[in-house]
Design a protein that fits this description.
Shape: globular
Radius of gyration: 17 Å
CATH superfamily: NAD(P)-binding Rossmann-like Domain
Largest sheet: 7 strands, parallel
Strand content: 15-25%
Structural class: alpha/beta
Helix content: 40-55%
Order of helices and strands: EHEHEHEHEHEHHE
Number of domains: 1
CATH architecture: 3-Layer(aba) Sandwich
Number of strands: 7
Number of helices: 7
Distance between the termini: 38 Å
CATH topology: Rossmann fold
Length: about 250
């Protein structure tokens, strides 16, 4: 039996990309899924697919930039399943442009989704894990959280923040003896809808060309499952996952 069997897993950004792939992978291993995203039609379709394949999934339309909605998501999971074992903090956006373009609204949105959304999820979900002295927080950072590149400055800043939040949470929970594990996953080029959030034409063209090397989101889903599957006394802290041919 997999160590994932019957674990209750909340996945944000579950309607596409890595979130959707992780949902399918974990469902196949017996997880009880709580799917969260803004697009109800996508969530319903994913729920139906999982259930038709013998898995368990419920969903709640959620905007991670709303602290209230994240609290409601945690309460929903606890009401339906009685516990939360794993949080996959996956929701994110990636608009790219040089700072001189002054796309301040995009900066604000990235900070709201990529940083505050991660923190709101932690604030809503970790207290119940601490109470049970068991849990696992998996944050999706990026290779951009390790390497800075022109045009990705603000995005890189948000993903460096996710990496720092992950390590800080890991240290704090280790010191507190709560048995909460923390994993920071940093994908490189992965097939997803992230590219569609870039509005700068020149930057979008460059990203489209670069992402010809992208690996499938299932590759990241399997890594997430690997981290969860470890015995409770083993914490996979950091995973950086690139296409074999990706240099930076």
């Amino acid at each position: 039996m997999s160590n994932i069997q019957d674990k209750v897993v909340i996945i944000t950004g579950a309607s596409s990309g890595i979130g959707e792939a992780a949902a399918k992978e974990l469902a196949s291993k017996g997880a009880k899924l709580v799917l969260a995203a803004r697009r109800e039609d996508r969530l319903k379709k994913l729920q139906d697919e999982i259930q038709n394949n013998g898995g368990q999934a419920i969903y709640k339309v959620t905007d991670v930039t709303s602290r209230k909605q994240m609290e409601e998501l945690a309460a929903f999971a606890l009401k339906e399943f009685g516990k939360i074992d794993v949080l996959v903090n996956n929701a994110g956006i990636m608009p790219q442009a040089f700072l001189a373009e002054n796309k301040v609204d995009e900066w604000d949105k990235m900070i709201d989704v990529n940083i505050k959304g991660v923190l709101y999820a932690i604030a809503a979900i970790v207290p119940s894990m601490r109470e049970r002295k068991s849990g696992h927080v998996i944050n999706l950072s990026s290779v951009a959280g390790h390497n800075i590149y022109p045009g990705g400055t603000v995005y890189c800043g948000t993903k460096f923040a996710v990496k720092a939040i992950s390590e800080g949470l890991r240290q704090e929970e280790a010191m507190s003896g709560t048995n909460i594990r923390v994993t920071n996953v940093s994908p490189g080029a992965v097939t997803s809808e992230l590219l569609e959030t870039t509005t700068d034409p020149a930057m979008k063209a460059g990203l489209d060309e670069f992402y010809q090397i992208a690996i499938d989101a299932n590759s990241i889903a399997r890594a997430i499952a690997f981290a969860i599957e470890q015995p409770s006394d083993v914490d996979i802290n950091e995973m950086i996952i690139r296409p074999t041919v990706q240099v930076g």
